[in-house]
Amino acid sequence: xxxxxxxxxxxxxxxxxxxxxxxxxxxxxxxxxxxxxxxxxxxxxxxxxxxxxxxxxxxxxxxxxxxxxxxxxxxxxxxxxxxxxxxxxxxxxxxxxxxxxxxxxxxxxxxxxxxxxxxxxxxxxxxxxxxxxxxxxxxxxxxxxxxxxxxxxxxxxxxxxxxxxxxxxxxxxxxxxxxxxxxxxxxxxxxxxxxxxxxxxxxxxxxxxxxxxxxxxxxxxxxxxxxxxxxxxx
Length: 234
Ligand code: CDP
Prior knowledge:
2 domains, alpha+beta, D-amino Acid Aminotransferase, Chain A, domain 1, Phosphorylase Kinase, domain 1, 14 strands, 30% helix
């Protein structure tokens, strides 16, 4: 029986449809914005499309650089065609500057640069508890070898994106991405990489162009995302 057209939820902000064949999925980005920490959830029209467009652009850049992702193509209108991969229950979070939970939970001044960058890995479970190597292996989430590759990949993605953003006079403060195994067992980038899951500041004014605009009611979120899109694409 064909599974085409069946749906399942992927977090709060995306829905997955089965694609034309069993190796592909269509990821639909919803106009749904939420912050677990600040207990906020809103529908903000236009965020789905711009997240999909920015994420598609970033995936294209990563692919050009030889970093494999699940991206196949942007179908526009907030839909992305992707390869079906076996996702790890992990959220991989490189941090280049101190912000958010880092400042709330540790004695560090907002905006402090981390050189080398910090890598935090959370579990996609319950309220996303932070993991360490032993937890990841003991819980059977990834093998030691896979974990080494995930960390290497995280640094490759972070190095590339940080430099790319800096060329556009943007500071990539921190971001979250997800990883999965493709049919060859290779570890590749999945899900989305967009301002919904990152902090980006203008290099000179430190103005945010990410979900902090929503978290702290600092203006029009769609405008902020579109400004980021414009800056990245010139
Ligand atoms: O946002 P905060 O610093 O409090 O939490 P974090 O888990 O330390 O997140 C660091 C970065 O990853 C931020 O840019 C978050 O937006 C992003 N993140 C995300 O998009 N989704 C998650 N489930 C966790 C983190």
